Amino acid sequence: MNAPILESDPSDSQKPKKEAINPGLKLALELGPLLVFFFANARGAWLASHFPALAELGKPIFIATGLFMIATAVALIASWLLTRTLPIMPLISGIVVFIFGALTLYLQNDIFIKMKPTIINTLFGVILLGGLYFGKSLLGYVFDSAFKLDAEGWRKLTFRWGVFFLVLAVVNEIIWRNFSTDFWVAFKVWANIPITVLFTASQMPLIMRHSLDRQQEKQ
Asked: Where are the domains of the chain?
């Protein structure tokens, strides 16, 4: 059976086994584009002086946007080459990056790239909470390879992540509308990631309570 291009339903017992990916490499693929974005925004003038083609994009935030789009595409391609599947949430995020990045560069207006996290997080939050409304715990698409939970555990975890994504959307709106571009970029890279890591760590008690592996050990 050929492996599907997109991640399959985590409840599908017939789904093929996904290729494992080194956790460090997976983290690099997820964080790499953000670090490229931060570096390019901080050193935009230097990049423009050394690479004249980049200077054509405009000021540093536009150079950062162009390189962010390239880095995102590279990360998705690398993920495909390593696992032969495309992770759904990074794929959706990538599509939004390409659309809003293109608008940012074409219109020379950084509002579009600043709104990108708001759109992505709102989309993820609505999808997760909407899935619960229809009886689907869609977070399993993201964490199925890392956690094996019972149905109640997936429901609770999906709800919490759905609310968390909506909170991130609100926070992004507050930051980009009230602070400088440099502050917004720094917050996006150096605050959002630790906040997400801390939130993930805070969910471990719930994950442990509803872990199928742990329940089997008790039997």
From this structure: 20-109, 114-219
CA distance 14 to 215: 23
Question: What element of type H or E holds 161?
Answer: helix 151-178
Q: Which of 172, 170, 201 minimizes the C-alpha distance to 187?
A: 172
* H or E stretch at 94: helix 88-107
State the Cα–Cα distance between residues 106 and 86, nearest whole angstrom: 28
- Nearest partner of 90 among 10, 2, 26, judged by Cα: 26
The neighbour count for residue 133, using CB atoms within 10 Å, is 7
Residue 171: name the closest of 188, 157, 190, 159 by CA: 188
Query: Which residues have a Cβ under 8 Å from the Cβ of 126 and sit 6 or more positions away?
Result: 162, 166
Q: Report how far residue 55's alpha carbon sits from residue 47's, in angstroms, rounded to the nearest whole number.
A: 8
Q: What is the pLDDT of residues 118-154, one digit of tens each?
A: 999 999 999 999 999 888 887 876 665 566 788 888 9
